[in-house]
Amino acid sequence: MAVENGSGETRTWKSTLFAHDDVDIFRDTPIRYLGYANEVGEAFKSHVPRTLYYGSYLLASSYCLADSVSKGKHIYEEKTYLPVSLRRRYTVETIAEAAVWQGLASVIIPGFTINRICLASGYVLCRVGRNIPLRAQTWITTVIGLSMIPVIIKPIDRGVDQVMELTLNKLRKVGIVHKP
Asked: What domain of life does the UniProt record list for this protein's source (predicted)?
């Protein structure tokens, strides 16, 4: 879904939030893969100590926070022509929108998805592959989980984009969120 701004240009929530002329290091460089650290942690969950597993979530969450703060800082510095109160509001809204998107698209939904894929594949291997050694079953499950990461990224990102667009359009209609 898109919103038409005053100049006749159609903008989505994402194009408004992430409309930078320069390279966005959090979106356009390999740093983006830090957002998927927790999926790697989910895939290796049965092979690594809990601290490494939780550390993968800490790394992914730190990436999400850094991206959100970066987007907010960019908006605050860009909108110097606005009164301070509006600048702060737009900054907070930008940080919140980026944090929600990143939290859903990089941490929560993919982490849950990979966790369930590993759990399901482990269950199937346990039922079907009774003659496969348990250690081999856990590694097969890990490989399945890792191989699914590239498959799930785009559909999850698109789904979160749609949810964000629908939600933000409703919030804009009632005046809770500014219009792009």
From this structure: Eukaryota
Owning domain of residue 147: 25-174
* 2, 65, 87, 91, 101 from 77: Cα distances, Å: 25, 18, 9, 9, 22
Q: Can you tell me whether residue 11 is helix, strand or coil?
A: strand
Query: CB–CB of 115/43 below 8 Å?
Result: no
Q: Which H or E run includes 59?
A: helix 50-78
Q: How many domains does the chain have?
A: 1
Residue 171, C-beta contacts closer than 8 angstroms, at least 6 positions apart: 177
Residue 14 lies in a domain: no
Domain for residue 146, yes or no?
yes
Please write the tens of the pLDDT for every residue from 119-174: 999 999 989 988 899 899 999 999 999 999 989 988 998 999 899 888 887 877 77
Number of H helices, E strands in the chain: 6, 2
